[in-house]
Amino acid sequence: MQTLSRGQRLKLADLGLPNGNFSIKLECNNAGLTIDSACFGLDAARKLSDERYMTFFNQPASPCGGVRLADANRFEFRLAALPGSIHALVLTLAIDGNGVLGSLGNSRAQIVDDAGQVVASFDFSGALFKDERAVMLIEVYRKDDHWRLSPVGQGFNGGLDALVTHFGGEVASSAPTSAPAAPSAQTAARVSLDKRIEKEAPHLVSLVKKASVSLEKAGLGAHRARVCLCLDISGSMHSLYKSGAVQKFAERILALGCRFDDDGEIDVFLFGANVHQPDPLGIGNNRNYIESLIKKYPLEGDTRYGRAMQAIREYYFHKTPATGPQQIKKADTPVYVMFVTDGGTADQPLTERLLRESSHEPIFWQFMGIGKGRKSKSKALSFFSDSNFPFLEKLDELSGRLVDNAAFFSVEHPEEHPDEALFDLLMDEYPEWVKLVRGHGMIP
Amino acid sequence: MALSLKKGENVSLSKADVSLSNVLIGLGWEARTTNGLDFDLDASLFMVGENGKVQSDDWFIFYNQLSSPCRSVEHTGDNRTGAGEGDDEAIKVALNKVPEHVSRLVIAVTIHEAEARNQNFGMVHDAFVRLVNSDTNQEILRFDLSEDYSTETAMVFGEIYRRGSEWKFRAVGQGYSGGLYALCMQYGVNVT
Asked: A150 and B150 in contact by Cβ < 8 A?
């Protein structure tokens, strides 16, 4: 076994790892610090140009599988699987919370071959650092057609933010203010949100991961949107509220919201005869959220989609002036409305008019009908019989709109689809709509 | 044409390029982007006689003594951070002005206070040292310090030496412990 020193650089082949299959095992003597590890896959300019190549607890593998967080303290590498665009992998440590790495105890990073043999060890401690809060610990990089490895052992007092900035924060300052946030800021915000989820709502961690997978598949891995959950509180929904099915569904939508947005909250609207806007559903208050909601807003005796839609439109776009010949409204981020109902509406003409009008706004309406419907994605034949949702089926195809801004599917029960399938369903028509509204200049 | 030398090889400078009379030793590196003390690399040159020692301290060219009494060797000055493109420090040598008592020019690269700052070449990005024919701008030799001398803190880059009536160059590429101080002791410079 070879002992590596900071700054040393050597070929992986010289460590007996010519095929680039190995693991790095971290043993940190944290001395009371909370330390997170991550692996950044950088391009030739040493930038994280593809966020999917940041491998950490909430994104535990790169798309190619070349980097994998095998367990909390072990990264597994299959370098041959990496695309040519990835020139360097930098394994980093960052403190979450207070403290500096200067107080780190005796720690080590071991390079382990596929047979489980430790081929090299980089021993480090606070003596190598001072006020750094994030460090590049080990770098594996391409050089002259070889992969090399170096214990870098240098970092930033500014912590994870500084590290992320270092790996790509220098986004052109000339970009218009309406442009999406810099990848670095997004990444940093996402990491801190992921930390919050892990701490405050650990039951959501795997849901959020599943949402990520569906978004990636839909090509929306870096997409940003505000998420709104609009719930039917008509009396017929009673058993669904009571059984916890609505609560579980709301958590799934919150998980989607945690990928689309980085504030860890989604807006909630309730509608029956009237419309209510309770406090947003968030990471901190999601447990029993629906139960306490229903105590505060008892179920009502009517169902009026139109009123709810009007309230939602006003909330998001009331102050936005319409511009251009098509009288469109513009926003930095679009709004994704998850509209849940178990029956028809009493204000059909209003609903149709609002859907047409809002096709000029960056707002997408995803309707889900709970009951029997022709748009059930389940294959059981019974679901293709009489529909409870002829109107929603019509809305989905409504004419006179600038863009197709609505999608509809029905389920017999909110938990009919496994999480993965539900997230895929939610992303069925939305990606196409994003392209359309972008084409119309409604979003950047 | 450009020559590619490997460690330990030598070449006749006069034969390699008949016009060669002025050479430049260039030292470059990237400024530190991480937190911590700057990387301060230094290029130095010892003008030694047949006995392997300098005639006097005047013949040791470094950041505090930028030229030799004969003006055949000129140092462009101390760069303490690596800021700037290309060569951050350079030593220019006019071979035909080097006095007779000097038979060898030993070129060294060191990290200032490497031990106290706990630094080595591998911690520095894109550190290199090169030898250039300054009349034609042709590079004769280049060492990648960051990659190939990563664990070193000081190195003898090479020696330009007399062989008969011509100058030859040997690529030494030997790491050295003890920094500039140890080299000064070896080549007879009085360090106080």
From this structure: yes
Chain A residues touching residue B144 (CB < 8 angstroms): none
Q: Using the beta-carbon criterion (under 8 Å), do A136 and B151 form an inter-chain contact?
A: no
Instruction: Indicate the residue of A150, A154, A158 with minimum beta-carbon distance to B36.
Output: A154
User: A319-355 burial string, b = 16+ CB within 10 Å, else e?
Assistant: eeeeeeeeebbbbebbbbbbbbbbbbbebeebbbebb
- DSSP β-ladder status, A281-282 and B89-94: unpaired
Nearest CA in chain A to B153: A7
All residues of chain B having their beta carbon less than 8 Å from the beta carbon of residue A150 are: 122, 150
Give the whole-angstrom CA distance, residue A85 versus residue A43: 6
Residues of chain A found within 8 Å of residue B32, distances taken between Cβ atoms: 154
Q: Which residues contact A202 (CB under 8 A, 6 or more apart)?
A: none
* B149 alpha-carbon distance from chain centroid: 15
Q: What is the pTM of this model?
A: 0.60
Question: Given an 8 Å threshold on Cβ–Cβ distance, is B123 in contact with A128?
Answer: no
Interface check A153 vs B, CB under 8 A: yes
Distances (CA, A) of A70 to A26, A212, A420, B139: 12, 19, 22, 47
Residues of chain B in contact with residue A10, where contact means CB-CB under 8 angstroms, are 150
* From B33, B35, B122, residue closest to A8, measured CB to CB: B122
How far apart, in whole angstroms, are the C-alpha atoms of residue A268 and residue A247? 12
A32 pLDDT exceeds 90? no
Q: Which pair of tokens denotes residue A234?
A: 């008509």
pLDDT at B145: 92
Residue-wise pLDDT for B63-92, tens only, equals 999 999 999 999 999 998 998 888 999 999
ipTM: 0.88
CA atoms within 13 A on the CB side of B101: 8
Q: Is A157 at the interface with chain B, CB within 8 A?
A: yes
**DSSP reduced 3-state for A248:** helix
Report how far residue B101's alpha carbon sits from residue A267's, in angstroms, rounded to the nearest whole number: 86
Q: Are A382 and A371 in contact (CB under 8 A)?
A: no
